[in-house]
Amino acid sequence: RISTGSIKEPTGIVASPQAFVRMPTSVYVESEQSIVPWSESQQLVLWFDAEKNVQVDEKFRVVSWGDHLGNGNFEPQDFWQVDKEQRPFWVVNSDINRKAIRFMALEHLISEPLKTGNQFSVFLVASPKPQKLRPGQSSGLLDFGTYRNFSLFHDFNDQLIARMNFRWENGVRNDGTVLAAPHLGLQPAVLAYTYDQSGNQALLMVNSGVVATGEAPVSAETDSSRLLGTLPGAKVGFVGDVFELLIFDSALTEQQASDVSQWLMQKYAIETE
After folding, report:
1. Over the stretch 127-183, which tens digit does the pLDDT of each residue have?
2. Do residues 257 and 159 lie in contact, with contact meaning Cβ atoms separated by under 8 Å?
3. Nearest-angstrom CA–CA distance, 206 and 80
4. CB 66 within 8 A of CB 52
């Protein structure tokens, strides 16, 4: 028998429960191979659907959002958030009765680093909410890259802006290609952005229609995490719902981008005005 007086308090690193995140298991779904409007050759690298692979805490705030595998996407790259105060919410959007990841201006998710090449395509199904921003302010929605950085954000004119920022090229500051989508209203919309260096073209679409084009003069190659939601330390952030996100490591043609957009529009019952 050991006397309690001889037992000392353990020393060492105290574990933080919030640091232990059980990632959801991403599942390969072969049955969906025949119904999507893209092929494996178009190099889908990220696919997030708010109906699938979402792990929440006791307050229905998102701990992790699992990459949906299949149709060319074979390497899981999940989104996660260990800080419970910066987790977005998992909700049912009453407008279309679909599950969504809801951001309320202070939350964000971050992915593992992912290497992509000199061209890419992004598709986002989202419902941005109007915000009162001062001139010059913006609220970030999607951000990746370091020296060459792509960002999607809501600006003070209530526009959704897609920007490929080259920063410094050959000793000269270059703010890169800035494309703006008009006011989207309150209903969900499908946004598509393609960046093609070889063809020197960037393209922004809303609900399968082209709203802006620009040049794509430099490589977009990067090896960084993806951030969804508010940039850490930012005073304002995105407000709204995100339903689905796809990123391809290739520049889809205008017709291919339109096909994917229309497929998403049909999935979420989104009609063009």
Report:
1. 887 677 777 677 777 887 555 667 787 677 777 888 777 665 565 555 567 788 876
2. no
3. 28
4. yes
The encoded tokens of residue 148 equal 């060459």
CB-CB contact of 159 with 93 (8 Å):
no
Question: Contact 220/248 with Cβ under 8 angstroms?
Answer: no
CA–CA gap between residue 84 and residue 250 (Å, rounded): 35
Instruction: Kindly tell me if the per-residue pLDDT of 21 is higher than 60.
Output: no
Provide the 8-state DSSP code for 257: H
Distance CA 12, CA 141 (A): 39
pLDDT tens track for 233-269 = 777 778 889 999 999 999 999 999 999 999 999 999 9
Give the closest residue to 45 by CA, choosing from 191, 171, 222: 222
Q: ∠ at Cα 193 (88, 110), nearest 5°?
A: 30
Residues 6 or more apart whose CB falls under 8 angstroms from that of 37 comprise 256, 259, 260, 262, 263
Which pTM was predicted? 0.82
Residue of 36, 18, 13, 25 lying closest to 267 (CA atoms): 36
How many CB atoms are closer than 10 A to CB 165?
A: 17
d(CA 243, CA 182): 20
Q: Is the dihedral of CA 37, 40, 41, 46 positive or negative?
A: positive
User: How many angstroms separate the CA atoms of 90 and 96, rounded?
Assistant: 15
